[in-house]
Amino acid sequence: MAPARGWSRAVGNTRSFVGNALGGVRGWSNLASWVVAGSLAYYLWVKPARELQKEQEERAALAAASDPYRYVEKRKPIPDPQDTGLIYGKKKEPTKSDD
């Protein structure tokens, strides 16, 4: 029975440490304090940050849609077997070999 007693003591010590690290309050009051702290953190930091990000994205989308002179890429360059790889690229001069 000695090993079981040591195991339960270790569990009790761990539980006591976690309880003290969380503020030393146990039971429903501990849970209620964590709920209140989490709610305050959400409404004071997380929610405003998300709303600001959403507002900035909407503003950027509106600005992009309202600019009539913006450049829009309509098609991609056509691949070509040149050394540059693009049809409008400069061709590489052929090298002369002594063969």
Structural class: mainly alpha
**Overall mean confidence score, pLDDT:** 77
Give the overall form.
elongated
Query: Could you estimate the helical fraction of the residues in percent?
Result: 55-70%
Terminal CA distance: 93 Å
Instruction: Note the beta-strand portion.
Output: under 5%
SSE sequence, one letter per element: HH
Largest sheet: none
Structure annotation, total helices: 2
The gyration radius over C-alpha positions equals: 33 Å
Low-pLDDT runs:
none
Number of E-state strands: 0
Biased composition (Basic and acidic residues): 90-99
Region (Disordered): 73-99
Description:
The protein is an all-alpha fold. The protein has a domain at 27-66. Helices cover 60% and strands 0% of the residues. It has 2 helices and no strands. Residues 90-99 have a biased composition (Basic and acidic residues). Residues 73-99 are annotated as: Disordered.
Describe, in short, the structure shown:
The protein has 99 residues and is an all-alpha fold.
Question: Topology of this protein?
Answer:
Blueprint: H1 2-21, H2 28-66
Region (Disordered): 73-99
Biased composition (Basic and acidic residues): 90-99
